[in-house]
Amino acid sequence: MDPSGNEALHHDCSLRVESTGLHYSWTHEGNAIEGQLRFEQEKLFWQDAWHQPEAKLCQVCPEAWGLCTARFEYGPPGETPWGWRIMLSQRPDETLVLQMTNITPWGEEGRALRMLFTQQEL
Predict the structure, then answer these.
(1) For position 122, what pLDDT does the model report?
(2) Residue 83's domain spans which residues?
(3) Among residues 83, 89, 90, which one has the least CA distance to residue 110?
(4) What's the total number of domains in the chain?
(5) Domain presence at residue 82
């Protein structure tokens, strides 16, 4: 939303962890946006109402840092593809971080979204 990548916008977000995957939600301009990382038979699918409305099969990157990292390529057929990386990590204070990064065909990376989740008492 910020072409130069210098502005941080703050929105409420939540994360629900289930045996089949992660479900997250956040708000933008008063609109609720939901997404999920879904595990099916050793495959990972990502879907997000804002970024990727149709489920996309991702390549899991087991050698990457963090709890789970996945990526996929997108763009018009016949052109050098763009990349998209999703990483779930845990900070030393137990905060979970879900970060999505866009990667240009020439290798430049720009953070698209970062969500910070702290455990809430029930």
Answers:
(1) 41
(2) 13-117
(3) 83
(4) 1
(5) yes
**Side chain identity at 116, as an amino acid letter?**
L
Residue 53 counted as domain residue: yes
Per-residue pLDDT in tens (0 to 9) along the chain, 122 residues: 455 556 777 788 899 989 899 999 988 888 889 999 999 888 999 998 887 888 999 999 989 988 999 999 998 899 999 999 999 999 999 999 999 999 999 999 988 889 999 876 44
Cα angle value 13/82/51 (rounded, 5°): 25
User: Which pLDDT score is estimated for 53?
Assistant: 84
Q: Where are the alpha helices (DSSP H) in 16-82?
A: none
Sorted by sequence, the CB contacts under 8 Å of residue 98 that are 6+ apart come out as 15, 22, 24, 86, 87, 88, 113, 114, 115, 117
Distance CA 20, CA 22 (A): 7
Does 107 reside within a domain?
yes
Whether residue 100 contacts residue 83, with contact meaning beta carbons closer than 8 Å, is answered with: no
Structural domain includes residue 6? no
> For residues 65 and 49, what is the distance between their CA atoms, to the nearest angstrom?
26
